[in-house]
Amino acid sequence: SFYKKYSCNYIHMDNISFNSSSMLSLEKLNIPPNVVYPAFFLGLLNYCIIVLCNSIILLTIARDKNLYQPMYILFFNMPVNDLIGATAFLPQLMKEILLDSRSISYPACVTQAFFVHLYAVGSVLILTAMAYDRYVAICLPLMYNSIMTNSYLMKMIILLWSVDFILITVLLSLVVRLPRCRSLISNIYCDNPSLVALVCSDTSINNIYGLFLTAVVQALALGSVLYTYMQILYTCLRNKHSDARSKAVQTCTTHLVSFVILEITSFYKILSYRFEKTPSYISKVVGVLVLTFPPTLNPIIYGLKIKEIRTRIPLIFRRKVAHI
């Protein structure tokens, strides 16, 4: 009896070990054959726009010393983060569309999930840091240079990325430690909820930590942005100088648009995991929008709305042409 029990446990563990190294299947895209190539080129075009626009913003800030200011240095992190999110998703999706392959290895799936969540949490933290910067600049202008020093700014950026990295590492470490007995990813890309759904043991700790992470990040972001913008609005209404007021409103509107777009798409995606009655096609569309919409719009919004960036983008290209 003992031998049989031991043998059964050994076989069970062996199957789990086998599953851990096997390929996973992503949810089908259901793209008609005549739409495959248009869908591929649409995805390729979108990725090229994201890479080009975000790279231009990065190059403009990096090469123009007039933009070496806290506001733009903080904003520099946004295109980097957007490129992480888009690169984690779009190349894999285009490959799957073109080759009609919905399989992915478990390590590749975990890697994709890591960068997808790194992008999602990073977006919220970066926008929160930018809101704080605008609050100090508009509400405490005389103290701005003494507060937003280079050392303080670097500490803020290092802390931002460190917290993001640690939170997501813990999130996925809790998943990969558990045995799996399923191989179908119920999503068009890999993320933490999809990986948790593969597990055949107790996932209470994963669910608690996932809810904790979502609640803390969202509460921090919404609370900080609401507080800072209420203070900014109050300061702008008190300011008698119309030029300073309009400049403050213009800068803050740009930031607020990016924040609202991110929150709307992210909030719906979070809710779709909690309510099973959500139509799958809507969940798929929103999932794609979370990873493609902000990275596409952010450089365009900031590049067009912020005068300092908009006027310096052509200068970068003129310098390159002059050097040639």
CATH architectural category: Up-down Bundle
Q: What's the number of structural domains?
A: 1
Enumerate the strands of the largest sheet in spatial order, edge to edge or round the barrel. Answer: 2-1-3
Shape: globular
The percent of residues in helical segments reads over 70%
**Structural Rg:** 23 Å
Order of helices and strands: HEHHEHHHEHHHHH
Name the structural class: mainly alpha
Report the top-level CATH class: Mainly Alpha
Mean residue pLDDT = 81
Largest sheet composition? 3 strands, mixed
For CATH, the homologous superfamily is named as Rhodopsin 7-helix transmembrane proteins
Strand content: under 5%
**First-residue to last-residue Cα separation:** 81 Å
Notes on the structure:
The chain has 324 residues and is mainly alpha-helical. The chain has one domain: Up-down Bundle (Rhopdopsin 7-helix transmembrane proteins), CATH 1.20.1070.10. It has 11 helices and 3 strands. It has a 3-stranded mixed beta sheet. The chain is globular. Residues 1-21 have low confidence and may be disordered.
Give short descriptive properties of this protein.
single chain; 324 residues; mainly alpha; Rhopdopsin 7-helix transmembrane proteins; 3-stranded mixed beta sheet; globular; disulfide bond
